[in-house]
Sequence to fold (134 residues):
Amino acid sequence: MPVQRTFVMVKPDGVRRRLSGEVIRRIEAKGYEVDQMKLFTIDEDLATRHYAEHTDKPFFSELVLFITSGPVVAMAIRGPEAVLGCRQIMGATNPLEAAPGSIRGDFATEIGENIVHGSDSPESAERELGLFFG
Ligand code: IDP
Ligand code: MG
Fold:
């Protein structure tokens, strides 16, 4: 299986709820490696570029306000099939559809506050890692 690097981020709700360690623990326990990591607050420009695909969605302004509302833990994660593997650890976007045992399934109730972000493809991973760590 190809070794990949993917972008994972504990969102402001996850940091506020002291779940950063839990997110990292699950990723490491699976067998992935934290390659780079930083705690910082995203500004509006970076938020807009990170969520560029959602510009036209009705929830976009809410999304930008939320993701800039406090510090995040941004990480580059490395390992076999890390992109898909991290998405599985996170669970479905809507916490009500996320399987128990996944981060969103275990810790979240609302789609707008779903604890973590993870790149959805190798191409997204490269773009997002460039934005946050380039
Ligand atoms: P993902 O985070 O699972 O990749 P995306 O569809 O890329 O999901 O959406 C980005 C983020 O935008 C989601 O994680 C979620 O927090 C938020 N979001 C997605 N759909 C909605 C919605 O219908 N209402 C409010 N927020 C949403
Ligand atoms: Mg996405």
